[in-house]
Structure formats: structure tokens, C-alpha cells
Amino acid sequence: MDLALSWQDNCDNPMLEDVDWNSKTRRSCAILLDDTIYIDKRSPGYVDYSDEIIKFMDIHSDLLSRGQQPITKTGDMSETRFIDLELHLGLPYVFIHQGGCEHLIIVEQVRLFHPGDDPRVANYPRQIFRSGPRRLSCGICSERFARWITFNDDDAPSSPCYFCFDCFYMLHYSADGERLNDFNAYVYLENMDDRVGYQVALQKFKDSIKHQEKVKVKKEKS
Q: In Å, how far are 32, 34, 75, 115, 187 from 85, measured between CA atoms?
């Protein structure tokens, strides 16, 4: 399961006003194999990660592990076939998507075609396993699902720390919506299909805030 972080720090925008849930960054991806970074160029407005990564590796070449090759070349993911790659068993490669979410890819086995295998080329690559759903709870109340994740947060019990809407807002903002301390906050999504559910839950939270404000005004007038 992909535990996805949003593409930007929203500590000053807790109600996520004017957020582009379909930002082009979220449709971009790349895979780093040996000395080459392959870019997925299929989506209009894709983001090419290669320039920044190649510059970083050039400046910080001392961080490379023994035997690790620096990224110096680029390739088009859609025009590259497995037969064109020189894969090494047990060597970790990196898949990057959504702006900065990284996954290790390790090739553990390579074998010839078996008579029991599906002969239809269009059915490959095949997914043979997927982990079950994983929902993290709020690190404060442990009652509601995590909707935010914070870093460098002195008021949180840990960094990173996961928060539901209620605990996140209560701990970090005043009644007027002013930020109370310094921290980095990112939208926490279980996966990219969770965007619609997230927005529905966010709207319910906004409605509850408005309702509380109305009740408060009524009490003050009575």
C-alpha cells in the first residue's frame, strides 16, 4: 500500500483552500537504474526529475556508496523495454513519484518462460502480490484516522507524527485559525485513490467548525 504524502507544506493552510488535488507533480514518476534515470513522459505537463537529481549527485558524489554509480544519463520510460536493461540481482533501485515519495525496487529472481506461465504478452508485467489495506490512526487520540503528518513539531510526541483533523487543528491553531508554533505539515493520504474520501472528510470537519462557531455566537447572545 502506498502511504502518500502531499506535494507541499500546508502548515499555513490547514483548511486546504485552493489546493490543486490534481497537480501535475502527482502524475509524474521516474525510476533510477544504475547510471540512468528513466522519466515517465506520458502525462501532459509531466515533471522531469532528472535535472535536479543529476545536479545533486554531481555535487554530493561523496555520499555514494562503494560501487554505486552516479546518475549521469536520462531515458524515456515508455520507450524502454526490459530487454534493454542490464538489471543486477539484489541491487536496490529507486522509484520516485508524487513529487518525493520513494520506493526501493529489488530484482530477486530472473527465470526463463515456463509452460505454466500466461503466454499473453499484453498481460505483463503481472502483479502477484499486494499488501492489505493499512490505515494509520491519529497519534494523539488513537480514535480517528490520520489525515495529517507533521515534521519538526515540538508540540508533537514524535517526528513525524500523525494527526486526525480535530487533534491537528486543536494543537496547532488558535480559535481564529492562527498558527501557534513552527512545524511542517503535509496532507496524509493512504493512497492516491483516497483523495475524494479525504476531501469529503475535510468538508465534514469544516462544517463541524462552522456549527461550533454558530453555537458559540448563540450562547454569547443569550
A: 12, 10, 11, 24, 36
